[in-house]
Amino acid sequence: MEIKRGIAVSPGVAIGPALVLDTEGFRIPQRFIHPEEVAGEVDRLKRALAAAAAQTRDTQKAVTDKLGGQYGAIFGSHALMIADPGLAREVEGLIREQHYTAEYAVSRVIRRYAKAMESIDDSYLAGRVSDLFDIEKRILTNLLGQRREQIRHLSQSVIVLAHDLTPSETATLDTSRVHGFATEAGGRTSHTAIVAGVLEIPAVVGLGKFVTDVSGGDLVIVDGNRGLLILDPDEETLARYEKTRSQMKSFESGLNELRDLPAVTRDGVHVALLGNIEFPHESAHCLERGAEGVGLYRTEFLYLDKQADPTEAEHLDAYMTVLRALGPKRPVVIRTLDLGADKFLPRSEAGHHERNPFLGLRSVRLCLRNLTLFKTQMRAILRASAVGDVRLMFPMISTVLELRQCKMILAEVKEDLEYEGIAFNPDLPVGTMIEVPSAAILAEQLAREVDFFSIGTNDLVQYTLAADRNNEAVASLYNPCDPAVLRLIDNVVRAGRKAEISVNVCGEMSGDPQYTMLLLGLGIRQLSATPHNLPEVKRIIRSVTVEETVAVAQEAMRLETARDVNNYLREQTRRILPEVWN
Amino acid sequence: MSGEPLTKTVVITNPRGLHLRPATKFAQVAMGFQSNVQVVRQGEAFDGKSPLAMVSMFAPEGTELTIEVTGPDAREALDALVAVLEAPPPPEDEE
Which domain holds residue B59? Predict the structure, then answer.
């Protein structure tokens, strides 16, 4: 058994056989054979090894002709390794004695060599591991032939393990088969992580190297609550996790019963619960979890993985899908493009390299430099506002002037639409995210300019503490409980109250039940979170009185360190909802 | 395949260590002889006739490798194998 620690990005526990993806998306479909199949399997192995060696020698020849002998020789070495009698002997031994399939046996043997090499901390061998994977791939290709399966067409339940998954790969995972995933790369706020939350499957990212330790078909556990990946669990661990999994299922079904109950405190104060979404089809998740609407509709996916910027029609099509699902009465807050220039290559002006992209040309700053792109999105949002309760929100505003510029452009777009005779809601509510400390400090001034605020806690915490939580060395500084963050939120709520505009909290803090009492106590009456988290938050709301939450918030504000606040909030939450931390 | 092995210790002088091609070449040459070939690095023995074993052996510059050959053609084998390890890297070596 081996336990790897990473970053938990989507809660839950998944137990199952590993599907290890390399860049080509290989998988090993089967681990064991019947004893009577051994002879045939050994024969299959020998033919595959011979074919792989022959192909590699062909490659050697082709590369030699094209690039010269010294490059071709690399493949000559590969061919020798494939033809290594020791390899055939070891693999055959596993087939005969363990009744492994040829694929699984090859993978086990080669990964054992690879692991021995990786355990030596030296760049000398690190590069050589890729030679081993290259020959593994060559042999597996020959063994699998037509049996090679794509990640999108799975025939059995698996847990996907990979170095990294792109957001689009993650998005296309078949969740009826893929019960969880774990990756070596990635951080909590990466799009892959966000998509995992959306798919509602347990996921852990940022685990560091582990793919070489696993063969396809090995039993693994993904603990999306604690951020663990457990390889080859022992019986006791397996039993414990199976119990946790069934407990969570019954707990969740209990939470589902909350869906149709109102989100009101014991003393009758209503709290609006809204869902955060990324894809139109997630509107269904919102309704399933009893959300009153969409509090944050991220639109970045319209822009990613595309050759050209999305057209007005593409925007409108996505927005209309959401509106059709939610109906005309439920609010839908659409956030304009919130991408960094670094993610926007190569078609935008971001042809240059930014030394510090998080303090660079991103989000609304980028839009203000790309008015065509900005206006296209505004037009689509305005057109959608004709048929539903659409609201528009600007991200990453850091000065009053920036907000005014955005509003001025919006006014121009409205004029254009009016001139063209296209319907829209002239009173479209306009809000701003509060996620830069300067905006939180100047909330009183900004409040006069907008219809609502939404506090984006992820960025607000990062910018307030100047700490990237994906950077292990400083991640401990990143803490939503930090007294500085609480003061900023308090300031924003006060400014909102004074200007009589609503203040929403989106970002992960709003979906974490640990912070619910604190946020209510600070005066927040609207929370927007990943739909999955809403029932738990609702349970807290229904268990407390406003008076209690005010006491909690006051005590939290009195504490001087993030750690004290964190401990205090945990304790208070455990009192209300003990099942969350058992 | 009896009797005392013939041995010789060689120090790796290539600044990039014993890398892919000489490692596999070594095994290839070893396979051409009847004798049993072992390479000992810091007390650990590797099968000298296995390209995979030779490639995954950790032998950076300065490593002492002891070649142990046992068998009827041990003398010729040892000379040929020492020559592989002591051959200077080709000047166009890009690995």
Answer: 6-86
Q: How much is the ipTM here?
A: 0.86
Cβ-proximal residues to A79 (8 Å cutoff; 6+ apart), any chain: A53, A56, A57, A60
Q: Which residues of chain B have pLDDT under 70?
A: 1-2, 89-95
Does residue B82 lie within any of the structural domains?
Answer: yes
Chain B contact residues (CB < 8 Å to A): 16-17, 19-21, 23-25, 27-28, 31, 47, 49-53, 55-56, 58, 60, 90, 92-95
DSSP summary character for residue A265: -
Nearest 5 degrees, angle CA A323-CA A329-CA A332? 50
What would the pLDDT profile of A291-319 be if each residue is shown by its tens digit?
A: 999 999 999 888 876 678 899 999 999 99
* B21 contact residues in A (CB cutoff 8 A): 73-74, 76-77
Structure tokens at A317: 């099509």
- A83 interfacial to chain B (CB closer than 8 Å): yes
- State whether residue A126 sits within 8 Å of chain B by CB: no
State whether A140 and A156 are in the same domain. no
* pLDDT classification of A463: cutoffs 50, 70, 90: very high
pLDDT in tens, A250-261: 777 777 778 889
Residue-wise pLDDT tens digits, A494-546: 999 999 999 999 988 999 999 999 999 999 999 999 888 898 899 999 999 99
B11 domain-assigned: yes
For the cut 90, the answer to whether the pLDDT of residue A576 exceeds it is: no
Q: Are residues A19 and A40 in the same domain?
A: no
Mean pLDDT of A352-357: 74
Q: What CATH number is associated with residue B49?
A: 3.30.1340.10
CA nearest B82: which of B16, B15, B33, B42?
B33
Q: Which residues contact A462 (CB under 8 A, 6 or more apart)?
A: A358, A468, A469, A478
**Structural domain of A43:** 35-147
Mutation site for B-interface testing, chosen from A60, A84, A118, A119 by largest number of B Cβ within 10 Å: A84
B-chain CB neighbours of A133 within 8 Å are none
Total structural domains in chain B?
A: 1
Q: Which of A71, A80, A124 sits opposite B28 (nearest CB)?
A: A80
The pLDDT tens digits of the residues spanning A397-444 come to 999 999 999 999 999 999 999 999 999 999 999 999 999 999 999 999
Q: Dihedral angle at the C-alpha atoms of B22, B25, B26, B29, nearest 10 degrees?
A: -150
Three-state DSSP state, A396? coil
Does the pLDDT of residue A565 top 80, yes or no? yes
What CATH number should be reported for the domain holding residue A51? Answer: 1.10.274.10
Residues A142, A161, single domain; the answer is no
Is A74 within 8 Å of B24 when comparing Cβ atoms? no
Please determine, for residue A162, whether its predicted confidence score (pLDDT) is greater than 90: no
**Would you call A286 a catalytic residue per the annotation?**
no
Residue A169: pLDDT band by 50, 70, 90 thresholds? low
Determine, for residues A124 and B49 on separate chains, whether the beta-carbon distance falls below 8 Å. Answer: no
The candidate with the shortest Cα–Cα distance to A520, out of A542, A498, A488, is: A542
Helix (H, G, I), strand (E, B) or coil at A239: helix
Q: What's the whole-number average pLDDT of chain A?
A: 87
Query: B95 and A124: CB-CB below 8 Å?
Result: no
* Better pLDDT: A135 or A189: A135
- Identity (one letter) of the amino acid at A448? R
**A127 interfaces chain B, CB cutoff of 8 Å:** no
Any alpha helices (H) in A385-425, and if so which ranges? 400-420
CA A339, A345, A349, A352 dihedral sign is positive
